[in-house]
Amino acid sequence: MRYAASQIAILFSVVGTLFVLAPIVSAKEINFTQATISELNAAFDGGALTAERLVELCLQRIQAFDDQGPNLNAIISLNPKALEIARALDVERKTKGPRSPVHGIPVILKDNYDTFDMPTTGGSILLEGSIAPDDAFMVKKLREGGAIILAKVNLGEFANGYQSSLGGQSLNPHDLTRTPGGSSGGTGVGIAAGYAPIGLGTDTGGSIRGPSTINGIVGLKPTHGLLSHDGIIPLALSLDMGGPMTRSVYDTAVSLGVMSGIDPADPYTNKSKGKFHTDYTQFLDADALKGARLGVVRDFAGFDPDVDWVFQAALKAMERAGATLVDVRYPKWFLASASDMLWSIYPPEFKVQIADYLATTDAKYPKTLDELIERSYEYTSLGENGAGPNPYRWNFFNVENASGTLTDPGYIAAHDYGMPMTVSLINGILVKDNLDALVYPTALRRQLQIATSSLSSGGGGISTTVVGNLTGFPELVVPAGFTTDDLPVTVSFLGTAFGEPKILALGYSFEQATRAIRLPVNTPSLPGEMIEIPEK
Length: 536
Hints:
Elements: H1 5-13, E1 27-31, H2 37-45, H3 51-65, E2 75-78, H4 82-96, E3 106-110, H5 137-144, E4 148-153, E5 163-164, E6 168-169, H6 185-192, E7 198-203, H7 209-215, E8 218-221, E9 241-246, H8 249-259, E10 293-297, H9 305-320, E11 324-328, H10 332-358, H11 369-376, H12 391-401, H13 409-432, E12 437-441, H14 450-453, H15 466-471, E13 475-482, E14 488-494, H16 500-514, E15 530-534
Parallel strand pairs: 3-4, 3-7, 10-11, 10-12
Antiparallel strand pairs: 1-15, 2-4, 5-6, 7-9, 8-9, 8-13, 12-14, 13-14
């Protein structure tokens, strides 16, 4: 935790006297953490909730669980103007109406998204205090829609690994001895623990999908080019995608629509011209599984009996909902080489692209990977605020620095030939059996203990998630159940390029049939969290 507890006290102190809400004649009560954005908007419209009160409820949970209680340590910095912004948005709602479905909705950001009013650090003390010149494109779109940026959250430093030199180690709210995954671990923790309805992560090889499954929430790695890279600290732009992490498929669909659009600053978004939508909720269908043909990737079984059992139960639920399941397998050569292919692309790109980003920072910050390495040697112990060296990530700077160039044969083979070949392979599997999507367990096994996590990162080995990055195809993660020791298991739906409408529909149908999400045992409901939702 790198914010002072007094920040929350200051935020609350400016609230003053509480307003009195008029009773609603016909309404249902629900904990705000379980409410969808649609239900929150119904509460706004019915006078049972305001953006100011919603921010207060989120801050209450942050205060209870991040700095006290289980000390989840997901927050790096809070927006000191969150309540002020919320009050202004409440006035705007009354006088002009809502700007969009996210008007008045709090959002937490992985701290590699630029914000003009809060530091963007990548979780690194090497960039501590760095203020970007403007918002990332995705953040700008959210703010234009009336969303409230509530906090910046912890991550694997520079989007690699499980912890950071600035934020330290975040804890898994389901099991405090395990990591929350990486690198969007802070976002996963915050959404699972009810810190905000919407969170943003980034994904280069599984960094949205991994923390989503580990924390038991919904996450989407969108099609490459659907959302802008602009203003996000890069890891490897050929593979990177930012995306939403939420507690429901509906909320993921809402936030995706708000953030979509062509960005002149990111040529990759030109691929989405004529293919993106500003409202993805229109595609959600509780009956979408009926008549659907799903390819079950059988290569990802046999690693953890609990995960296998939950996945098989999920498949049965899909069949009961009317889906036809077709067993598929990836070629052995691909399973053996896919992760190595990704790791042939990422380090060389990071070396070049991090310098492009650092050029936008203040003169006092490092400007190249070499300078990051040199600056890191100035830190040999923990500082007064608890920040300190991150040996795993900082040692990996040297691997990235020695990884070669974008003209080396290994990079060209993976990027120019391996990625298109993977696209053809997956499209061929989908077309051969007339499949709507591929499904598989998002993670092969339960998450690592914190004590061993720093020894277990790196390339190689079988991975469920690298396919989505090598192809650029969209992958949706949906909660499916829990292991015998109460750890979440999720199912992934992988579609073809710009197939978000289809996989969101399928995921929504599965979610409505199973409803497998719940608050983590270490972050239960708090008094005063019930809100009234007007009945339709």
